[in-house]
């Protein structure tokens, strides 16, 4: 005999606790998965950096289980950290594409000409969204509010995380993939507690608001000392003929070029192409690239670079 049941969270995500929180800034409810590092319970005097991830419904199950291994990896060991994956609850879990557009796109973010209600109908036909969710997606694409989601992370969630867990605020991190990578790039150019930021395959269109923000910070001679942004792009997003060349490859390479030619004062910027991966398979590889660049303990040089 076998029995279908609902396993405890620890069966899939060891060391993880789950919370739900209503955000005043966004006006929506979020699910939060918090994974502590190995030996967190025994190292009672130690504090750890918190690293935040949007798209928690996808990122938590793909990245949190590796928490048990990356600290003691003999090849690429990383500093132990508290992983905070932020996602959605209830009905929003069935329409992630629509809801995340509200939270992860900067205000006023332009769309490619090929993004229109007719193109979203293809998502309905493919079964990714129903008709109502497609309408919500289009509405959120036209009215994005990453500023409100950023306020939720900084002003509402982080104080709760710091109050419940032993957090070291000197190296708070943020990492996102796809639209999450666009959000991370946007956050990197704002005044926030995030000092180590990773943007994986960011959905940066050629006229993205992040270019406008970057130029404004250059003009103001803003001081970015102590802040790092590590950007990754999957190889096939640049080399293979697909919509991702326009949605990801072109904008990301333009940003990498601009950051290299016209660097912000004190800003540590790095980038890497993830070999062989596509947009569908590059999430985990991008995450580990970020950890190796910003939280590595394998060499003094790597640690100093990210401090």
Give an account of the 3D structure.
The structure is a single chain. By secondary structure, the protein is α/β, with parallel strands linked by helices. The chain has one domain (12-305): Alpha/Beta hydrolase fold, catalytic domain (Rossmann fold). The chain is built from 12 helices and 8 strands. An 8-stranded mixed sheet has the order 1-2-4-3-5-6-7-8, with helices on both faces. β6 (196-200), α8 (209-219) and β7 form a beta-alpha-beta unit. α3 packs parallel to α5 (131-142), α3 packs parallel to α7 and α4 packs antiparallel against α5 (131-142). The longest helix has 19 residues, at 146-164. Residues 299-307 have low confidence and may be disordered. Keywords: Hydrolase. This is Esterase. InterPro entries: AB_hydrolase_fold (IPR029058), Esterase-like (IPR000801), Siderophore_Hydrolase_D (IPR052558). Belongs to the esterase D family.
Provide tags for this entry.
single chain, 307 residues, alpha/beta, Rossmann fold, 8-stranded mixed β-sheet, 40% helix, 17% strand, AB_hydrolase_fold, Esterase
CATH superfamily: Alpha/Beta hydrolase fold, catalytic domain
Structure annotation, total helices: 12
Give a quick account of the main beta sheet: strands, pairing sense, barrel closure.
Answer: 8 strands, mixed
Radius of gyration: 19 Å
What is the CATH C level class, in words?
A: Alpha Beta
Which fold name is given in CATH as the topology? Answer: Rossmann fold
Mean pLDDT: 93
